[in-house]
Specification:
Blueprint: H1 4-30, E1 33-40, E2 45-48, E3 51-53, E4 58-65, E5 69-76, E6 79-82, E7 86-90, E8 95-103, E9 105-121, E10 125-126, E11 128-139, E12 142-153, E13 156-168, E14 171-180, E15 185-197, E16 200-212, E17 217-227, E18 231-239, E19 243-258, E20 261-270, E21 273-285, E22 292-300, E23 304-312, E24 317-329, E25 334-350, E26 359-367, E27 383-392, E28 398-412, E29 415-427, E30 430-439, E31 442-452
Parallel strand pairs: 1-8
Antiparallel strand pairs: 1-3, 2-4, 4-7, 5-6, 5-8, 9-10, 9-11, 9-31, 11-12, 12-13, 13-14, 14-15, 15-16, 16-17, 17-18, 18-19, 19-20, 20-21, 21-22, 22-23, 23-24, 24-25, 25-26, 26-27, 27-28, 28-29, 29-30, 30-31
């Protein structure tokens, strides 16, 4: 009777040890190790192999660089543990590995453009020709663009430029240098940087001129720009032995007031004082006939100019622009009337003057004061009538045609000059632009060209 309690205790102790052993084995069997992978810099590559593994399980890691990067190595706690994009090891602990990549310079492509002209009659000769070449590269994930420009007038080399723009760490950079190869002489050079933070963008441009001003001397021009989605402000300063304020410009644009009506305003002032203020409303509804109009007023230190541009769409998209000035008596602070400089009527058919499809337009401009109206008049010309057509052309291009008759107080029926021009796509980015001009002083025929690739 005395031995049985001892036997019971031994049996109980054996069961306890067995349960403990089984518990340890269960814990060991269910243990896992976590492998965490990180990319430096972020988004420079795609990583494979992260996850949880059982003890002794084989882990296979792979790093696939993104375009513009190459693999540098696997790092753990700052030490390089492998230089191969494919790395294997046995899971025996939690590990965090960093795949480092370095940016490389890749050539993306080459584009360019050119334009020029050739006079055929009365005297054959070369006109102004301009060529632009734009190679593009990528350093890491950021594109960098180069731009080389050269221009000729006749057989003389008149212009040479080199520019670059690019991005790095969320900032945009740029710069360039301009030469006059005819002298030869250095004309100017500039550098700029800009960045965006939410809706705010800040930019700075500095330009160096070797000789400018009175008396001519080297100087630096600084341009600081601050902009949001509806406001921009530009301040310019120049350094000639000291930094001084030059002028400032504030623009308010596309402020939606109500019912599609937008407000715009511009304020400019210089170191001498107020320069001008312009305020306008766009797409104002008219009480009847489906019309709308734009209206603006410009104040300068000496004048006030009013522009009124109604829009009407009966058979065409019609627009009337009136050029004039408000006659204001500054001494008595009273309005004495309106000085009318001229008016322009433009009527668009089809797809609103055919920016991409087929259509046409008719335009009439009459200037009571030709010097104050933008019409391209020569001599005593004061009026023109213009008609134009455009539509789909060869190889995805668009043909254009425009004929303009200029009138003066003299000449046959007042006709002083007649000009015909247009554009004919030829394919491969080529556009031929012939031009014929007939006037009382003679006839000229020229052909131009435009190229994009």
């Amino acid at each position: 009777m005395n031995a049985s309690p001892c036997v019971h205790r031994r049996a109980l102790g054996g069961w306890t040890v067995g349960l403990l052993v089984l518990s340890v084995l269960a814990v060991v069997g269910s243990a896992t190790h976590t492998v965490v992978l990180q990319s430096a810099p972020p988004r420079a590559g795609t990583l494979f192999g992260a996850g949880t593994y059982k003890p002794g399980e084989r882990v296979q890691l792979t790093a696939l660089p993104a375009r513009g990067f190459e693999f540098d190595g696997w790092f753990e706690e700052g030490e390089n543990v492998s230089s191969s994009p494919s790395f294997e090891f046995t899971a025996d602990q939690n590990r965090t590995l960093v795949a480092k990549f370095r940016p490389v310079l890749d050539f993306i492509g080459l584009s360019g453009s050119g334009q020029g002209g050739l006079t055929l009659f009365p005297t054959p000769g070369l006109g102004a020709n301009r060529f632009e070449l734009r190679p593009r590269f990528r350093y890491g994930s950021d594109p960098w663009d180069l731009r080389f420009v050269t221009a000729f007038v006749g057989e003389e080399w008149r212009d040479a430029q080199a520019h670059f723009t690019g991005s790095w760490a969320g900032l945009r950079f740029g710069g360039g240098i301009l030469f006059n190869p005819l002298v030869p002489a250095y004309r100017s050079a500039y550098g700029m940087v800009s960045g965006a933070w939410d809706d705010l963008r800040l930019g700075l441009r500095v330009t160096h001129y070797p000789l400018s001003g009175t008396p001519p001397a080297p100087y630096l021009l600084y341009v600081l720009t601050l902009s949001t989605s509806s406001l921009s402000a530009t301040v310019r300063g120049e350094e000639r032995g000291g930094l001084v304020f030059r002028d400032a410009l504030v623009n308010v644009f596309s402020v939606d007031l109500c019912c599609g009506v937008e407000a715009q305003a511009t304020l400019s002032f210089t170191k001498e004082g107020f320069a001008y203020f312009r305020a306008g409303l766009v797409n104002l509804p008219f009480p009847c006939c489906g019309m709308s109009f734009d209206a603006s007023i410009t104040y300068t230190a000496d004048t006030k100019t009013v522009e009124f541009a109604p829009r009407w769409q009966p058979l065409c998209d019609a627009c009337l622009t009136v050029y004039g000035d408000v006659l204001w008596d500054r001494d008595n602070s009273s309005w004495n009337g309106l000085a009318l400089y001229g008016y322009k009527i433009r009527c668009c058919f089809g797809s609103s003057c055919c920016p991409a499809g087929a259509g046409g337009y008719v335009e009439f401009l009459t200037a009571f004061d030709p010097g104050r109206v933008p019409g391209g008049f020569q001599g005593e010309e004061f009026e023109y009538a213009k008609v134009g057509f455009c539509g789909p052309g060869c190889c995805g291009g668009q043909y254009t045609f425009e004929a303009t008759a200029y009138f003066s107080p003299t000449g046959l029926f007042g006709l002083e000059r007649f000009k015909i021009g247009g554009g004919v796509p030829l394919g491969g980015g080529w556009v031929l632009t012939p031009s014929l001009e007939i006037s009382s002083s003679g006839t000229s025929l020229s052909v131009g060209w435009q190229l994009r690739f």
